[in-house]
């Protein structure tokens, strides 16, 4: 009997090792598949344009060149200003938007809030239908008067129905008895929210904050609509988009006038701008990765 137990234990350990090893191999291959495209972008950004035309994209540059980065950073004052504008909008928008979304999600899951279902339906309804581009433009530019104002980029991203629903789903995991006991002790709603709910909702805050920050960091469309070229500094993504557009225009104009510009690093510039835009996000992401995964998991289970 004891020998049979030992054999079952050995088989169980062998199965566990096999499953764990298979999982490590699968995850490693999957991570490699995710890493290869980034290495391809990085390698192409340091490749000479003529070599890209001859041999295509490569993980390692055949002919090393930094010409694309020289063009992107040709005006360092402009790109530094674009970085500062984007960082300020991202930081302010993330903190303000996270605070508003957290309050909204917490209020909508409170059993003692009578209008929670009606407001939740209203928020969900906006994910199915929208007013369209023209009313949105008239609202921001004409009625609010935010043309050539950074608030035109900041305000539209503060609230998101998807993130509100995610926050509401997460805060449902926090027992309502905590709120009731705090009220018995004399705490107000705002005190309960700040001192009890927010510390327990750290994974959700990290997850939603990352979504908001990425949205602001990658924002260029609203900036293109509402921020004219007369502004000294515009967000980073729009600045890089204009650099690519200008290089493409110059290359096409030279082709139509029979003036060869083979050395214009259009393809490598696209990769270089991708590296410039995503570099800070890649450096920042590892610090909140565990909170991000935990928040996504809890939000999915509770939703």
Automatic annotation (TrEMBL):
Coiled-coil positions are none
Keyword field:
Cell membrane, Membrane, Transmembrane, Transmembrane helix, Transport
Q: Which residues form the ABC transmembrane type-1 domain?
A: 83-288
Q: Which GO terms describe its biological process?
A: transmembrane transport
tRNA processing: present as a keyword of the record? no
Q: Which cellular components does GO assign to this protein?
A: plasma membrane
Q: Where in the cell?
A: Cell membrane
The family database entries (Pfam families) matched by this protein are listed as: BPD_transp_1
Q: Name the protein family.
A: Belongs to the binding-protein-dependent transport system permease family.
Asked if the keyword Cell membrane belongs to this entry, the reply reads yes
Protein's recorded name: Carbohydrate ABC transporter permease
Its transmembrane ranges are: 21-43, 80-109, 121-144, 150-171, 192-217, 271-288
Q: What's its membrane topology?
A: Multi-pass membrane protein
């Amino acid at each position: 009997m004891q020998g049979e137990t030992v054999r079952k234990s050995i088989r169980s350990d062998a199965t566990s090792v096999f499953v764990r090893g298979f999982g490590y191999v699968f995850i490693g291959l999957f991570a490699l598949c995710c890493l290869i495209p980034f290495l391809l972008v990085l390698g192409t950004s340091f490749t000479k344009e003529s070599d890209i035309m001859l041999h295509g994209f490569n993980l390692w540059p055949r002919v090393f060149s930094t010409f694309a980065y020289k063009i992107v950073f040709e005006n360092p004052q402009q790109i530094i200003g674009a970085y500062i504008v984007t960082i300020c909008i991202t930081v302010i928008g993330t903190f303000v938007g996270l605070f508003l979304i957290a309050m909204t999600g917490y209020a909508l899951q409170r059993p003692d809030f009578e209008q929670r279902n009606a407001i939740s339906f209203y928020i969900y309804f906006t994910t199915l239908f929208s007013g369209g581009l023209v009313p949105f433009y008239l609202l921001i530019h004409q009625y609010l008067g935010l043309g050539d104002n950074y608030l035109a980029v900041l305000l539209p991203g503060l609230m998101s129905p998807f993130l509100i629903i995610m926050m509401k789903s997460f805060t449902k995991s926090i027992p309502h008895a905590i709120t009731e006991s705090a009220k018995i002790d004399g705490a107000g709603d705002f005190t309960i929210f700040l001192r009890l709910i927010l510390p327990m909702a750290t994974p959700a805050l990290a997850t939603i904050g990352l979504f908001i920050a990425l949205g602001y960091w990658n924002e260029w469309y609203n900036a293109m609509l509402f921020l004219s070229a007369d502004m000294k500094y515009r967000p980073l993504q729009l600045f890089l988009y204009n650099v690519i557009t200008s290089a493409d225009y110059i290359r096409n104009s030279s082709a139509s006038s029979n003036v060869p510009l083979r050395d214009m690093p259009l393809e490598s510039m696209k990769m270089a701008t991708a590296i410039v835009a995503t570099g800070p996000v890649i450096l920042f992401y590892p610090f909140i990765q565990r909170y991000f995964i935990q928040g996504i998991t809890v939000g999915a289970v509770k939703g």
